[in-house]
Amino acid sequence: MSGKVIKEDDISIVLCGAAGLGIQTVEHLLTKVLKASEYNIFATKEYMSRVRGGLNSTEIRVSNHKVRAFLDRIDLFFVFSKGAIERHQKRISKDTVIIGETKNLDECLEEIECHVVEIPLTEEAMKLGSKVYTNSIAAGIITGLLEVEIVHIDEYFKERFTTKGKDIVKKNCEAARIGYKIANDLEASGKMDFRVHKDSTVKDEILLNGTQAVGIGALAGGCNFVCAYPMSPSTGVFTFLAQNQKEFDVIVEQAEDEIAAINAVYGSWYAGARGLATTSGGGFALMEEGISLAGITEMPLVIHLAQRPGPATGLPTRTEQADLNLALFSGHGEFPRIILTPGNIEQSFTLTQKAFNLADKYQIPVFVLTDQYLLSNFYNLKPFDMKKVKIEHYIVETDLDYKRYKITENGISPRGIPGGKGLVAVDSHEHDEEGHISEDLDFMRVEMMNKRFRKEELIKKEMIPPELIGPKDYKILIVCWGSNYDIVKEAVKSLNKKDVAALHYQQVYPLHPDTADFLNAAERLIIIENNYTCQFGSLIQAQTCIQFDNRILKYTGMPFSVEEIVEKISAIIEEEK
Fold this sequence. Notes:
Layout (H helix, E strand, L loop, with lengths): L4 E4 L1 E10 L3 H14 L3 E7 L6 E11 L12 E4 L4 H4 L9 E4 L14 E4 L2 H6 L7 H12 L4 H12 L4 H23 L3 E4 L10 E4 H11 L4 E4 L6 H9 L1 H4 L2 E4 L3 H13 L4 E6 H17 L3 E7 L16 H5 L9 E3 L4 H18 L2 E7 H5 L1 E4 L59 H21 L5 E3 L6 E6 L3 H11 L4 E6 L1 E3 L5 H6 L3 E6 L5 H10 L5 E4 L8 H15 L1
Parallel strand pairs: 1-8, 2-5, 5-6, 6-7, 10-11, 10-12, 12-13, 13-15, 14-15, 18-19, 18-21, 21-22
Antiparallel strand pairs: 2-4, 3-4, 3-16, 9-16, 14-20, 17-19
């Protein structure tokens, strides 16, 4: 290693090693300790679909300001397994500092210009009795470089390992101190200087990931029944609610399959509860008949669809935005629906909460589309303002003359539940106002279809408008949806072009009526999506007859990085010149 490495105020740290080595443990430790030290943090992970072996990695950004997006840049790279350097070779630059053991530093380093620090992590860990302490040493190095007070690490280990005994707590604390000393020696030798200014506003913030935000949003929406069959990356929401079911009085049921799960959630709404089905693409495919049943019986449903790359099992631990069409066209026949696509952790909370009110009010399925990248993100944020949360109930008490499917001017029939004086009928067939099977083709069938779709006019009145990011007098407009929100937002800021703006959608269907106005105001249109067929772009084109000049699509299973977006947008701008 030659020359002094200086990093300041926004540092990207990557840790990579084989599954089973505890990379996730280090991530959990560092995010909590760094946040407690009043640093802004952002963390995300990528991992292979296996229990042991392969390579998993975590990126942690430590900053003096709010950071919310994935970077290609690696400032500090901890290598725990052979092959890690080759895996991230494209992200390594001459300014990257690689820390690892000689046995894990690949031959490809000869082809890469960077800084290498060889530290016998396993040897140091074995002095404490086990190589399991390697992770704690690495965490000590990172916290030492960032001058985190060692007391924060001690507190973390006491909280995490108290049940395993005082000796385990003591040895982890000792391991962290070994790492801390290594960091101090590196800085004292003049080899590196990592400086991040603290942000006092972090003190009163919370640390949350997307999975937790969806779960908390469901609880804030009045969810009191959850039924699912495990399928990554949606399982985390199911697990989170199961862990908190007693505190929040929620019934959590693991069904034998997704068909049973959606029907159980359907039944919960029929009985007056607020149910949630959480699943991913392959599981959702089995739920489609239940979705269609909700369509004709006008039963509220909330479905959390956590996207991952298909077809079939595809890449089960990776990320993609390829299930928009699945949600949009799911269920045979035609019926109204709402599709919400949160862009970050805050929106994951607010939109999931809102989904329950919308489903109850309009008696339709409401989808919350997330993806693996969004669900795994961690960062510090202000606590949610629960005073603004309102649970809206639309259930009526039935009388003897109750008609479940009464034809109304706005299309919304009074929804009662069993227990009143009237009969609450549901049937998968077309029906009359009382819910009895009807084959009156010329009148009742037409009236019921018209009634169901009249709701759309009301839905459009409270749609969430797209958010314009950047200058209002733009010439180039970048359109995105879902989890690309903060990535594109930071990219637009980095471009610093007075004529480049972005438009983000957190509700993609029904499509907001102002869409055409936004698009027509631009001279050039660019859409960004994590799929092959440009699903949202196709939806916009179908409804507005407006085509995009450029499509930036990615379907590798990895999210876009800020630098990647900046590079591709810059190339388009240069091409125009």
